[in-house]
Amino acid sequence: MMLRLALLLALLTGAPALACEVPPGLAGLRVELLNLTNAERAAQGVGTLLPDPRLDEAAQVQACRMADRERLSHRGSWFAGLGRRLRRVDYPYAMAVENIGEGQTSAPEIIQGWMDSPDHRLNMLARDAREAGFGVARAANGRLHWSMLAAAPRF
Q1: What is the CB-side half-sphere exposure of residue 23 using CA atoms within 13 A?
Q2: Which of 8, 41, 77, 78 has the fewest CB atoms nearer than 10 Å to its CB?
Q3: Pick among 1.10.510.10, 3.40.33.10, 3.10.180.10, 3.50.50.60: CATH of 26-153
């Protein structure tokens, strides 16, 4: 019943449905991801990121889309890029970056993977970013799909 309601609401509002499997304790996992990210930023002398529920929502939508397709992609439904996804959650941004991953089994593992990748590391340590959001979804094949958004609001 809830799944049907979510799909109907998505069709009526044009919002993406979040009918995907999320790992247990997603809220705690998001806190862990933010804490690990901020520890890496602090080690490099970069400011702390604050959580933002709109960024969590946009990141979760992307993680669900990737899990549904069982592949990594920076594009969402109808090839929506990051800017469109942020506008859908009413996040007016001055800057935004995104990291994605697939297959890592824990928060420390995905954070380490992103820090070990030069391009992902730049996103993790983006000096202009002020807020962050995270999404995690499990694909039918059992693999986890991860999404991180770091952004600065436009005032």
Answers
A1: 21
A2: 78
A3: 3.40.33.10
Rounded Cα gap, residues 112 and 47, in angstroms:
19
Domain boundaries, the chain: 26-153
β-pair partners for 100: 147
pTM for this one? 0.83
Q: Which residue has the higher pLDDT, 72 or 135?
A: 135
* Phi, psi torsion values for 98, nearest 5 degrees: -140, 135
Using a pLDDT cut of 70, give the percent of the chain over it: 81
Burial of 95 (C-beta count, 10 Å sphere; 0-12/13-18/19+): middle
- The pLDDT value given to residue 66: 86
Cα distance between residue 43 and residue 30, in whole Å: 20
Longest dimension (CA), the chain: 49
Contact, 72 vs 114, CB < 8 A?
no
